[in-house]
Design brief:
40% of the residues lie in helices and 16% in strands. By secondary structure, it is of the alpha/beta class. α4 links the parallel β4 and β5.
């Protein structure tokens, strides 16, 4: 049986995919990438991402306000998000990409924290999982998730923290996103974390067009390379490749309630 993958984090509404959706999805399909989850970063992309999911069977939508774009998010954008979630659009599978970031210039961290809390409450209200961004904020994010428990939990995407930080999220019921970082030999800490976490806690992702894999530096990342992230993970794990593939796919279907 050929292996099937879900890219649980791909910004398919950005170039180089815009205007080339069918060709990009064909390449992904040839690599076994059956489903792709597309999170938003700003409110002005909600309609576009929902239309992509409507028009293309492999695509599923997540709606959220990303912390890197904090200057673009206000009460009006939060109200837009609330209205879209309340309308229960088909193929909406999560609230995301949301989270915290202390790596950026002028993080406006108090505003970030209030925005995160508001979006976690919306996820709880609408019984949706969350797709979480975290840079230099893992401990603060875990504390926020303890304060504002989301029943469906979610995934900490593009994880590059310590094993103990990953385990803290897993204890709270969250998955950990495995991306192209593990393809770099120098990423020893992240590679060790992904080797040691339980398979039941891992999700496959690309973050395309960001986070290119080793060998593709300077090129846009692509959803078909989820298959190469999988190969890199297989080199780090003791389990047989088929067992790893089945677990990753089961985890994605479970968290996002994807069709089997």
């Amino acid at each position: 049986m050929s292996r099937v993958f879900t890219d649980t984090h791909c910004h398919f509404d950005f170039p180089p995919f815009s205007g080339h959706e069918a060709a990009s999805l064909a390449l992904a399909g040839q690599a076994g990438v059956r489903n792709i989850i597309v999170p938003t970063v700003t409110a002005d992309r909600f309609v576009r991402v929902l239309k992509l999911a409507h028009d293309h069977p492999p695509l599923f939508a997540a709606l959220g306000l990303h912390p890197l774009y904090i200057a673009q998010h206000g009460e009006a954008q939060l109200e837009q998000l609330a209205a879209f979630l309340a309308s229960q659009p088909p193929k909406l599978v999560a609230v995301g990409e949301i989270g915290l970031d202390l790596y950026m210039e002028n993080p406006q961290f108090d505003r970030q924290q209030r925005l995160l809390a508001a979006q976690l409450k919306l996820a709880k209200k609408h019984d949706l999982p969350v797709i979480l961004h975290s840079r230099r904020t893992h401990d603060r994010l875990a504390a926020a998730l303890r304060r504002l428990a989301v029943p469906r939990c979610g995934v900490v995407h593009g994880f590059a923290g310590s094993l103990s930080q990953a385990q803290a999220f897993v204890r709270l019921g969250y998955f950990i996103g495995v991306g192209g970082t593990i393809s770099y030999a120098r990423a020893q800490k992240t590679r060790a974390v992904m080797a040691q976490l339980p398979l039941s806690a891992l999700l496959l992702e690309t973050d395309a067009p960001d986070m290119p894999l080793a060998g593709y530096q300077g090129q846009p990342n692509r959803p078909e390379r989820a298959a190469e992230v999988f190969q890199a993970l297989c080199q780090l794990r003791p389990e047989p490749a088929d067992e790893i593939a089945e677990a990753l796919q089961r985890n994605a279907q479970t968290l996002f309630a994807l069709p089997a």
